[in-house]
Amino acid sequence: MRNLQTQTFQTEILYFCRFAKLLFQPRIMAKNVKKKRNFFHKLHDKYRLVIMNDETFEEKLSFRLTRFNVFIFFGTLSIFLVIATTYLIAFTPLREYIPGYADFNTRKILRELMLKTDSLEVELRQKDLYFQNIRNIVEGRDVDEFYTDTVMSQEHFEIDELTRSREDSILRAEMEAMGSYNEWVTEEVTPTPTTMTQSFFFPPVQGIITSYFDPSANHYGVDIVADKNEAIKATLDGTVIFSHWTLETGYNIGLQHGNNLVSVYKHNSVLLKKEGDFVRAGEVIAIIGDSGLYSTGTHLHFELWHNGVPVNPLDYIVF
């Protein structure tokens, strides 16, 4: 009897639990669904942003906002800033101020600088050859036709591959036909250039001529004997291009004048000007002397060169 009552009681409790579960289960499910939907609903919840005076609490501005609108605004603003920054860096000169970016014209400027450097290098080589030939003339050595340098001796395949123009071929043929410097000076003296006849040459010193102009004997000037310590004067306005001493000709000085004229004064005892000095015609540049192994007494060896060719000073100057 007791067992039957116990079973009946347990059955009733079981039915009660099932009923309670059925009674509260819809509420629990509704609560869970409400929690899941609250996040999306909150995006559209409306808020008011109010700007008030801190002292009077007077409302100055107010805005109606939602979380969704705020998210859209800041997202759009971020995308715009990224696009604007990319455009400024890629298409405007402002990128020059950003580390790692070069100037728009950098390659053009570098190319121009390279061309200028090459031109300056060629000019320097020509100047070096010119001054070297002047020294060779003063020291009695042969004139160099080409400037031998390690840089010039390098092979430049890009230049060699270029096609020669008709004008270039004509120029090469003319230069080859002109021959060497030794052939020029052994020929008869060329006619007097017009530019030289129009110049007024100042006598460098007054004296007696003991040796005349003779290119066939490698004597490219005249020797003038004068008193000891006589002043040597510049024959024309010009610039001192060399002022030094050599074993063969002693103290030498050379002037570069206009119209490709060069005057040379050898065997001096004292040089009064240095390289780079500008002198006027008749200005004292040296003192006559007897310096150098080739000197046979106190005298001046005077030379005139026009366009790299020696000319007879007696054709233009009265000593």
Write the layout of secondary structure elements.
Layout: H1 2-43, E1 46-52, E2 59-66, H2 67-91, H3 106-139, H4 157-160, H5 166-178, H6 181-186, H7 194-197, E3 208-211, E4 221-225, E5 231-233, E6 238-246, E7 250-256, E8 261-271, E9 278-279, E10 284-288, E11 300-306, E12 309-311
Antiparallel strand pairs: 1-2, 3-4, 4-11, 5-10, 6-7, 6-9, 7-8, 8-10, 8-11, 11-12
- Oligomeric state: single chain
Helix content: 40-55%
How big is the Rg? 51 Å
CATH architecture of the domain at 199-315: Distorted Sandwich
What is the tally of helical segments? Answer: 7
Unreliable segments (pLDDT under 50, ≥5 consecutive)? 148-161, 179-192
Strand content: 15-25%
Largest sheet: 10 strands, antiparallel
In angstroms, what separates the terminal alpha carbons?
Answer: 170 Å
Arithmetic mean of pLDDT: 77
What would CATH call the class of the domain at 199-315?
Answer: Mainly Beta
Shape annotation: rod-shaped
CATH fold category name of the domain at 199-315:
Glucose Permease (Domain IIA)
Query: CATH superfamily of the domain at 199-315, please?
Result: Glucose Permease (Domain IIA)
Number of strands: 12
Structural category is: alpha+beta
Order of helices and strands: HEEHHHHHHEEEEEEEEEE
